TrEMBL record:
This is Ras-related protein RSR1. It comes from the Eukaryota. Keywords: Cell membrane, GTP-binding, Hydrolase, Lipoprotein, Membrane, Methylation, Nucleotide-binding, Prenylation. It is found in: Cell membrane. The keyword Nucleotide-binding applies. It comes from Schizothecium vesticola. Residues 199-211 have a biased composition (Basic residues). Its EC number is 3.6.5.2.
Amino acid sequence: MPPRYGYQPVREFHVVVLGAGGVGKSCLTAQFVHNEWIESYDPTIEDSYRTQVSVDGRQVMLEILDTAGTEQFVAMRDLYMKTGQGFLLVFSITSRASLQELATLREEIIRIKDDENIPIVIVGNKADLVDQRAVDRAKAFAISQRWQAPYYEASARTRTNVDEVFIDLCRQMLRRDDIDLPHNHDDIYYQKAEDHSSSRRRHRRKNKEHRTRCVIL
Ligand SMILES: Nc1nc2c(ncn2[C@@H]2O[C@H](COP(=O)(O)OP(=O)(O)OP(=O)(O)O)[C@@H](O)[C@H]2O)c(=O)[nH]1
């Protein structure tokens, strides 16, 4: 059934936030979803959030999984990686080891997804802790270039680049989805324009023409 006049499509994506323990994954996610700063450190087991954003005029529903960075929960990572369509790889600019951990995570994602071009954004968090910087910005940038992923320095504390990292990932996932023609579009639903209520209307997208047109965006 085609969408009714005044309704807009909402794309839905699964985002997974990964990185070593204490780098600020939960704080970045809480700032993005709730505009909330968390001072205390309470290691995460697993938290999921659902939030809708507008990206270049397109509505995107994000299911965000904030994962545990501590070793004892690594067994669950395979499962997260299987379901993720986009990944935020977070390290802290105050810890060289946390950047090194990202290499392993990235390799695992590529192996599990069997996809070298899976949408990824690299985030150097805690950029406000200038005096404690241990990772050279140029070095982190060079690594991200080698991985062909954008690099942002962010601060969950000052809310610097928080929206930008999530929106960049959304753009990558949208671009990816637009050119992924043999895709099952069961997860598209239509929503009344400017109505962000939870009433969901699922429709199959009608034809390839629309998808091809979206590539230009
Ligand atoms: N100064 C500063 N502190 C931060 C920032 N982001 C997080 N923190 C602090 O770092 C600690 C850990 O933050 P979390 O967001 O819980 O870290 P996490 O990566 O989710 O940790 P795990 O749940 O163990 O994986 C907390 O005390 C935060 O207040 C930041 O951008 N700047």
